[in-house]
Amino acid sequence: MPIYDAPTRDMQFVLHDVLAVSEAGIPGYEELDRETTAAILGEAARLSENVLAPLNPVGDAQGCTLENGVVRTPEGFRDAYEQMRAGGWMSLDADPEYGGQGMPYLIGSAVGEMFVSANMAFNMYQGLTHGAYSAIHAHGSEEQKRTYLPNLVDGIWSGTMNLTEPHCGTDLGLIRTKAEPADDGSYRITGQKIWISAGEHDLSENIIHLVLAKVPGGGEGTKGISLFIVPKFLVNADGSLGERNAVTCGGLESKMGIHGNATCVMNYDGATGYLVGELHKGMRAMFTMMNEARIGVGLQGYAQGEVAYQNARAFAQDRLQGRDVTGPANPDGPADPIIVHPDVRRNLLQQKSFVEGARAFTFWGAQMIDRAERAGDAEADAMISLLTPVIKGFLTDKGFETTVLAQQTLGGSGFVKEWGLEQFVRDSRITMIYEGTNGIQSLDLVGRKLGQDGGKAIMAFFEMVKAFNKEHEGADEAFDRDFLEPLKQASKDLQSAGMFFMQQGMKNPQAALSGSYDFMHLFGHVCLGFMWAKMGLAAKAALAEGRGDPAFMEAKLATGRYYMARQLPATGMHLARIGSGAAPVMELDAAQF
Amino acid sequence: MPIYDAPTRDMQFVLHDVLAVSEAGIPGYEELDRETTAAILGEAARLSENVLAPLNPVGDAQGCTLENGVVRTPEGFRDAYEQMRAGGWMSLDADPEYGGQGMPYLIGSAVGEMFVSANMAFNMYQGLTHGAYSAIHAHGSEEQKRTYLPNLVDGIWSGTMNLTEPHCGTDLGLIRTKAEPADDGSYRITGQKIWISAGEHDLSENIIHLVLAKVPGGGEGTKGISLFIVPKFLVNADGSLGERNAVTCGGLESKMGIHGNATCVMNYDGATGYLVGELHKGMRAMFTMMNEARIGVGLQGYAQGEVAYQNARAFAQDRLQGRDVTGPANPDGPADPIIVHPDVRRNLLQQKSFVEGARAFTFWGAQMIDRAERAGDAEADAMISLLTPVIKGFLTDKGFETTVLAQQTLGGSGFVKEWGLEQFVRDSRITMIYEGTNGIQSLDLVGRKLGQDGGKAIMAFFEMVKAFNKEHEGADEAFDRDFLEPLKQASKDLQSAGMFFMQQGMKNPQAALSGSYDFMHLFGHVCLGFMWAKMGLAAKAALAEGRGDPAFMEAKLATGRYYMARQLPATGMHLARIGSGAAPVMELDAAQF
């Protein structure tokens, strides 16, 4: 049975030592002192460790079942769901106007990390609900908000996102699901949606589907798409549940992982739907859900890496095989714990340095969202918009890689189900695919975000890193050498890649498209390098001021040095690949593959 | 249902255009003309495509079952096994003295690649048998050879390797299984072995277990280990099956993949065993099986990559989403096949350039084995000994990565079971673990192989690459630029890494151990770069001489250019990591992780 020990100390370090949240000047942040966040994180930790984590292998082994249109979740899920509701976790960062607690998105992210580490498949039920809440909150009418939000916030109702159809995933312009206007102002929705996470289940009393469909007369492609609310049960004027709507689950997908979450084929047979936002402007509304979801998926990536790492670390500290090459570390035992071996350490440090860097990156991003939304900061909004595909694409690629590395630490034990590592690998794999494959993220980054507003956001990013370096260099030779110099080099590589795209851009758009994936990874490394430099500074300050556990702070510095020395050199490789341009990628005819 | 189309044309290209096997001057190779190998490969292709591949998802879904000590393999496995036997595939490269056909190891490898691509879990039954055959053939007595080899060669009996115990995998010195001498010269074997592939099943009449155990009075650690034959059924003097031996399957592992292969807990309760080779010299005999097995596992890695790539390619050529950025490629359809998109091509080319390079590398290695064994070439023997951990470690890491990339090509379809991609990911994952984890391979490479005979083999490798470059440079500017220059740079990086280890070696053994994994990958890239340069030359020659399909040869050159431009730059990153030395890896205390 795998372990999970919520990393609240690491979270507190990021929140207070690195981000100094209570002094961030963001409305709602002033209350986030160490004690308050410790209390919230501590409660979430207990639920995660004691309730959600033990259910994770159960959900994997049992999966969901469909019988006569009814989907049953694994044993224990309903009870856990009730505990989540009762604890108020579903309403944590929702609008108080609709029953939410109004906590910052940042706190929702920290708590979310624990829930995802403990049980990703389970947490998706509420994750999707949160997305539906956000879309209605941002684009719904007053009446829709009053009708749906309080119950979504409470969790007594849940939500879904319905985009994909059998013949179209990425290319939503091909959608065939139809929405015919009815006399009462509602619509009749007809079509089939696939891969609908939490599409049908037994955890909530009602399910509010958000569905993309085409109203006749709309434009071609994505222009003709509108967004609809399609409740499983229609809602009466008094808020009580009415008639069953004509939406049914036609099947469950058999898949590699996240077995505890029901992935449904959803059939809409003239189901009653209500337009959300403007007619034919459904894509815009959907992107509200999608951008939030993408950051949430990036978080899933590293959160699965975190729990996998914890299990790898425990194994490496416990398993006795071979001897330290410099002399026995455990002379009274038959062998030394394998954590003495350099290659086992290399593997563990690759995991640790990624997960901790990714956490800082995600929290920093969440803080930007709060700054944008709560303080109306347009620059923060542009920056998080730029970074969203990096958070999604880089953190899920590396998060999955981390689960694979952790599995490797266990050797053969990593391959058998009993130890749980292989489930983390199977579960985390989906994060690279859903909410837009990571290839699509890289296109979003290079094809859209990079050039937005004349490249303002990426310029601001470079300025920020430069200003950071300027501010801190020269104070500590070792820190300059170990942190700032590698960060400068990596940032220079990123700039060179950006320059290459710009130079090629006009005459050869395929040069940028051929390098987009490498650019996303290059960018991700620079971001994590930047985070490690920030964390290194914070740890140095804490050591100098005698705050916190010195061994913990020293470990932060050492882990940062590892990332800088061993992971950041990847930027040169990505730049070289990008610099080779489109030719190596475009030469072959389709038939020559 | 996934497809499999045996890549016989690619194999013929490596055998004849690149390796020129019929002129290689190796005994037994003179018969390997294009027609002969085409006939053999064609037959193996039919069996792989029509019998083995369709059984692959069946084996995954059904798995093996254990009831009252009897293990049943999935439906259809017995029939397929009989077809393999009847076709003579099990005896292909075995010694004619014992009923084998005496074909080169190289041909066994080419055929093996197809069997593994088609159905890895199934093919392991005969793979293990081959290993047992090799150990007895190399170390058994005349009587043991006569008693066991003919039936192992025929396949009517099968074999296993029994190393791991619950408390020891890598560190075999900790083995507790005991072998007590009996009066008749045999031994009584007592102990428990775990993770025994094909340990018990219903495909063969007898199972010949090769078991590591300690005879009292042997030395400490691995010195006290001996190797034993422990047949499931004892064999009477006339060769007929006698009494059931005291060896039983105590359980089947539930695991991530290779469900069609029975992974057994084996209990030895005073079972009768027969010493193979010298007393207390069991490790040496076991290494015969292990070295062969390691190359076979490397082959599994890229063979799974090959079949995954084929399915990704087919999907990308078929799936319509989005439009070519330079103008519609399929103007009459609703969208273009996704293979028009640069990032999809990048992904496919990463797969394709690896798999084809890995095939050339493995075939080249197999030819070295034949040269060593059939022509008594000591240099070839030393070279393949050096390269074995690279073949195992690099090709399985990258082979697994290839299955993940292929899965990514399919987007959501890659995650659902129906399309079969996720099975390739789950099955190939074990190749990075068994027969020595890839971490162990890197230690074998850096800690043992590199320095052997004063570094003679690695020096010979560098000389070989240098001589190749010297011989071919200056003839074709484009080839120099696209192939030879990158190869030179990569080879220089490898030399620099080797130098760094040597300089550090004396004062800091941990510097080499901290860089061993990166060194293995660096070496692997240089080998594949070398292979691509060889394949590029061969394709150029074929084009110049009007041999073969020009589109095929052009594709080889373009794929090679991709590898050189986009994959080989990884060597610089690995060198940078290695150059950071032991400090980043060794700084943390075990408790600080």
User: What is the number of beta strands of chain A?
Assistant: 11
How much β-strand is present in the residues of chain A?
Answer: 5-15%
Roughly how many Å is the radius of gyration of chain A?
24 Å
Q: Fraction of residues of chain A in helices?
A: 55-70%
Largest sheet of chain A: 7 strands, mixed
Averaged pLDDT of chain A, please? Answer: 96
The residue ranges of chain A in which pLDDT falls below 50 over 5 or more consecutive positions are: none
Coarse shape of chain A: globular
Q: State the largest interface.
A: A-B, 97 and 97 residues
Structural class of chain A: alpha+beta
Number of helices of chain A: 18
The rounded distance between the terminal residues' Cα atoms of chain A is 44 Å
- Note the run of SSEs of chain A as H and E: HHEEHHHHEEEEEEEEEHHHHHHHHHHHH
Task: Kindly report the oligomeric state of this protein.
Answer: homodimer
Protein name (chains A, B): 3-methylmercaptopropionyl-CoA dehydrogenase
GO molecular function (chains A, B): flavin adenine dinucleotide binding; oxidoreductase activity, acting on the CH-CH group of donors
Domain Acyl-CoA oxidase/dehydrogenase middle (chains A, B): 161-269
Pfam family, one (chains A, B): Acyl-CoA_dh_N
